[in-house]
Amino acid sequence: MTQYARMTWNGNRLWTSRGRRLASEGLQRALEHTLGKAQAIVPLEEGTLERSGRVDVDGLNGAISFDTVYAVIQHEALDFKHLPGRQAKYLEQPMNNERAVMLRLMAVPLRAWLRG
Fold first, then answer.
1. pLDDT averaged over the chain?
2. DSSP string, 61-109
3. Which long-range contacts (CB under 8 A, 24 or more apart) does 80-83 make?
């Protein structure tokens, strides 16, 4: 007895304007989620660094940034003392730890559309 599996590939739909828009929305959600995680552990003295965090999405490209003159120094300096719960690598750690969540958030807007 031979068994068959049927599969329909809807990947070409991703290249339509609606597919790109939905993918961009998913990317925005994923990056906003990760920004929130980063802001929860960013070094804190006056809150300037925490408030400078932002997400920028342009189509299917996105970035999280912290815009102060000392953002990179605070991120990389492992020997700085921080308040409890705050740390260096405040963006790198959430990007690594939240990867699976980010992928699920990016897929949500597309999943129902591609199944339809």
1. 89
2. EEEEEE-STTHHHHHH-TTS---TT--SSTTHHHHHHTHHHHHHHHHHH
3. 80/43, 82/43, 82/44, 83/43, 83/44
Local structure of 50: helix, strand or coil: helix
- Burial (CB count within 10 angstroms: exposed 0-12, middle 13-18, buried 19+), residue 102: buried
The whole-model pTM stands at: 0.85
| Of 27, 52, 41, residue with least CA distance to 83 | 41
DSSP letter, residue 12: G
Joined together, the tokens standing for residue 18 give 């609606």
Say how far apart CA 31 and CA 34 lie, in whole Å: 5
Rounded to whole angstroms, how far apart are CA atoms 71 and 98?
21
